[in-house]
Amino acid sequence: LEMLSSYHWPGNIRELENCVEGMIVMSSDHVLELDDVPEYIRHAHRATVSGADISTQSALRTSSQHLSSDLVRAMIQSLAMQHGITVRRVSDALLHRLIAIDWAGNNYSLKQCIEMMILMTETGVLETEDIPPEFDRQEEAASSDTGHRPVDIRVGMTMEDAERTLIRATLASCDNNKTQTARILNIGLRTLFRKIKDYGIQ
Q1: Contact in structure between 201 and 171 (CB atoms under 8 Å)
Q2: Can you give the residue ranges of the Sigma-54 factor interaction domain (predicted)?
Q3: Among candidates 116, 152, 111, which has minimal Cα distance to 131?
Q4: Count of CA atoms in the C-beta half-sphere (13 A) of 51
Q5: Are the beta carbons of 175 and 139 closer than 8 angstroms?
Q6: Smallest Cα–Cα separation from 118: which of 170, 143, 82?
Q7: Longest dimension (CA), the chain
């Protein structure tokens, strides 16, 4: 009870309800103990108790101006653990970019950004190009400078050939930035990766 009550639930009682409901469903003896608490909550609690300011909750409470690489890295690992996804590597360039972005004092936007990257990764490696453009004005500016280039799509081409041509041209226009390409094509990043693989696009 102490651990659940001390966890910061981002003002969302529904998340607490889902957590407790999951613990009840998973319990085999109808007795809820410390081991039944989700790992990401125990991880945050251990960090708080040990005095290590490296949990997701710590990052959410920290001023954007005082974010550190260690804090953001720990936030990524904590959220990855929460979603059951393995993040094998986080580039230093990504950490520096996330710290440099002006979150306007709203680190919940940072949390949303990181969660989107974690849920979209297919390799377990997070790079700067994985930052969703809507969270990075610099990325949006680059997108607006992409411009419109003619694409050779002719009557008689199959849908597969036309789509392959359009994806290849958009990737080239975006300097192979897949996040930006997916945004322009209005498709999900996972869908783009699948089509690149299916169409053998280099």
Answers
A1: yes
A2: 1-25
A3: 116
A4: 0
A5: no
A6: 82
A7: 67
Which whole-number Å values give the CA distances from 121 to 73, 80, 88, 114, in the listed order? Answer: 16, 11, 11, 11
Cβ-based neighbours of 174, under 8 Å, separated by 6 or more: 143, 146, 180, 181, 184
Q: Length of the chain, please?
A: 202
88 and 45 in one domain? yes
pTM over 0.85: no
Summarised one tens digit per residue, pLDDT across range 149-198 is 677 788 888 988 889 899 988 888 888 888 888 888 888 888 888 898 88
Residue 189 lies inside a defined structural domain of this protein: yes
Q: Are 95 and 101 in contact (CB under 8 A)?
A: no
What's the number of domains the chain is made of?
A: 2
Residues of the chain where predicted confidence (pLDDT) is lower than 70: 7-15, 18, 25-28, 39-40, 42-67, 104-107, 137-149
Domain containing 150: what range? 146-198
Whole-number Å distance between alpha carbons of 192 and 52: 39
Phi/psi at 60 (nearest 5 deg)?
-65, -25
